[in-house]
Amino acid sequence: MISPVPLWWQVISYGYWERQFERNPGAIGQRITVNGIPVTIAGVSPPGFVGANVGVIADITLPVATLPLLDPGMAALLGPGNFWLRILARPQKNVSMAQAKARLAIVWPPLSERVISADWPPARRKEFADAVFEVAPGGTGYTYLRELFQKPLLVLMAVVALVLLIACANVASLLLARATARQREISVRLAIGAGRGRIIRQLLTESTLLSSLGAALGICLAWLTSRFLLGILSTGPSQVVFDLTPNWHVLGFTSAVAIATGVLFGLAPAFQITAAGPITVAEG
What we know:
Blueprint: E1 9-12, H1 14-21, E2 31-34, E3 37-44, E4 60-61, H2 67-70, H3 97-115, H4 122-129, H5 144-181, H6 183-191, H7 196-233, H8 248-275
Parallel strand pairs: 1-3
Antiparallel strand pairs: 1-4, 2-3
Helix pairs in contact: 5-8, 7-8
């Protein structure tokens, strides 16, 4: 049996623990004052977790039942007829989303009698009583920005991919022209015993190095422009907070794309320049 959590307990974020308590383990059990109410620190959330609402940092997390204590003027939000909370739950193992939805459908009818306001019109009461729960993955958190910018960002990604293909085609043309200018050099090297595979590897190394430099420049440019876009989103009353530091996911994806494009668009010039073989050079 799980005992109820006291209303004055709270969980603080890892960043708040670092800033205010200098990562002191003794902070657990201490009391701090929130809106004039002393609350006890029950734990510290893992590093990187700042709440389920993406773009908003939650340094202090309290049970929702503490709302009447912290802000008596908002106590009515916990009464019947208020539907403003989003539920984030971790289902048991081997419980699918369909099974979770079916269980919620069984629990909701008897629960609805207590949470639906008696002051509502009968039609609205019936509408909410007949409502069904929708279950969706919550691993990436919730944000209204996803609904606003998901489609524009997908279009932007498609445009970026198209620009990348055009840029790669142009670079491949430049590499082909450069390879044509070096054909005499490559032919001489083949004539004195250099293997074709070794020359192809050299040319692919050059093209991959060029694409890697472009990827590094792209990461820097993306980091600067993303901070600019974040500043535009934060011009309203609520500040949007994102960690825009490139992590290993971004670096790994960018590196894979850079290597793939360098090899793919460097093969045609490499094969063409080595296909002719050695040439005869007349002695002067």
